[in-house]
Write a structure and sequence with these properties.
Layout lengths: L2 E5 L3 H12 L3 E6 L11 E4 L5 H9 L3 E4 L6 H8 L8 H7 L2 H10 L7 E4 L6 H6 L4 E5 L9 E4 L5 H8 L4 E5 L5 E9 L5 E3 L4 E5 L2 E7 L5 H17 L4 E9 L7 E7 L9 H4 L4 H9 L11 E9 L6 H6 L3 E5 L10 E10 L5
Parallel strand pairs: 1-2, 1-4, 2-3
Antiparallel strand pairs: 5-8, 6-7, 6-8, 9-10, 9-11, 9-13, 11-12, 12-15, 13-14, 15-17, 16-17
The chain binds adenosine-5'-triphosphate and magnesium ion (MG) (2 copies).
Keywords: ATP-binding, Ligase, Nucleotide-binding, Purine biosynthesis
InterPro entries: ATP-grasp, ATP-grasp_carboxylate-amine, ATP_grasp_subdomain_1, PreATP-grasp_dom_sf, PurK, PurK_C, PurT/PurK_preATP-grasp, Rudment_hybrid_motif
Catalytic activity: 5-amino-1-(5-phospho-beta-D-ribosyl)imidazole + hydrogencarbonate + ATP = 5-carboxyamino-1-(5-phospho-D-ribosyl)imidazole + ADP + phosphate + 2 H(+)
Length: 355
């Protein structure tokens, strides 16, 4: 079998490596810190993402390289690409790691998105306030995750206070969306451009962190088709290879029932239910795509609710391990810090029987 390189050592890398191993691949990890993926890969190279020589040497020991988080510097991915193919490509990485570029890209495709504006810093907000106004959310352009680097703004003069919360970094201001609920599209695209999508989960967040993803969701069929169509257009425009997760707000009736929130150029937390409710889950399909294999089926054989185990939630593992029809996944992290994703549980029920 051949060897897949993964940039990043988090839990997504761990589950990618486990899926790859099932298909006879070996995985090598490159990361600036050891992490949950290191335990299941054949090797972990610890190095800075700025150490382009080290990254190139790492790449030479693999056949193809993917990434498990979107904040890998584009220069690092470019250094890999001089040696081995990087899938998904550099464009997906470059666009998705910068909220402003991401929103501009989505808008340039004519796809639906809430009003937004760039804000360079606390002194530059008159234009953004004039065009977006309040209520709105100030978000750092880079490095935000799990709702970190965000400040909710409710009054006209509160932007300086927003920057106190997020720090003095370039930001975007976006209108607060009064959504009915959140959904995401998990789409996989092969090297030949074949596209498959999983069923659309309904996602519930708590304090900015994904709590549950549930399938099936109650999105009307026509709007599900629209959601898939939107994700397909993004993947096509990026010449994407692998799994992409596109987060959307469902706003309901009207000409545009869905607004794009953001997309992740990788396997996505809201797709973790596919591991147990589908014959081929998102991790295996990502590996298949980047390895140039045919895609696997994305059909769902069970209804499922995925619940993240965040922080101290993980201490309930003995009960979860004993629960009928509950598939437990633990990431092997040593410390259960508040807000830290420690594992997840997929609760299955027969398809179509409701919950
Ligand atoms: P992730 O962990 O998904 O990468 P993130 O830190 O990049 O999260 P977002 O997805 O931008 O953050 O926001 C986190 C959550 O905050 C969203 O899923 C949604 O519940 C809420 N949220 C974000 N932006 C908006 C908005 N414009 N209107 C209403 N709610 C929002
Ligand atoms: Mg995000
Ligand atoms: Mg998000």
């Amino acid at each position: 079998g051949s060897t897949i390189g993964i940039l990043g050592a988090g839990q997504l890398g761990r589950m990618l490596a486990a899926a790859a191993s099932q298909l006879g691949f070996k995985c090598r990890i490159y990361s600036d810190v050891p992490g949950p993926a290191s335990d299941v890969a054949v090797s972990t190279t610890i190095g800075a993402y700025e150490d382009l020589d080290k990254i190139a040497k790492f790449a030479a020991e693999t056949d193809v390289v993917t990434y498990e988080f979107e904040n890998v510097p584009v220069e690092a991915a470019a250094a890999v690409q001089r040696v081995r193919p990087v899938r998904p490509g550099l464009k997906a990485l470059e666009v998705a790691q910068d909220r402003l570029k991401e929103k501009q890209f989505v808008a340039s495709l004519g796809l639906p998105i809430a009003p937004f504006a760039a804000v360079a810093g606390p002194a530059d907000f008159a234009a953004a306030m004039a065009s977006v106004g309040v209520p709105s959310i100030l978000k750092t352009r880079r490095m935000g995750y799990d709702g970190k680097g965000q400040a909710w703004l409710r009054t006209d003069n509160c932007l300086p206070r927003g920057f106190e919360i997020i720090g003095e970094a370039p930001a975007t201001l976006e209108a607060l969306v009064r959504f009915k609920f959140e959904v995401s599209v998990l789409l996989v695209r092969s090297i030949d451009g074949e596209v498959r999508t999983y069923d659309i989960p309904q996602n519930h967040h708590d304090g900015g962190i994904l709590r549950t993803s549930t399938v099936p969701c109650v999105l009307p069929p026509a709007h599900q088709a629209r959601a898939r169509d939107i994700a397909g257009k993004i993947a096509e425009a990026l010449d994407y290879v692998g799994v992409i997760g596109v987060e959307m707000f469902y706003v309901g009736e009207g000409p545009e029932p869905l607004l794009i929130n953001e997309f992740a150029p990788r396997v996505h937390n809201s797709g973790h239910w596919t591991m147990d409710a589908c014959a081929v889950g998102q991790f295996e399909n990502h590996i298949r795509a980047v390895a140039g294999w045919p895609l696997g089926p994305t059909d769902r054989h069970s209804d499922c609710q995925m619940t993240n185990l965040i922080g101290d939630d993980v201490h309930a593992w003995p009960n979860l391990a004993a629960e009928a029809n509950a598939c437990l996944h633990l990431y092997g992290k040593h410390q259960a810090r508040p807000g830290r994703k420690m594992g997840h549980v997929n609760r299955l029920s027969p398809a179509g029987k409701g919950r």
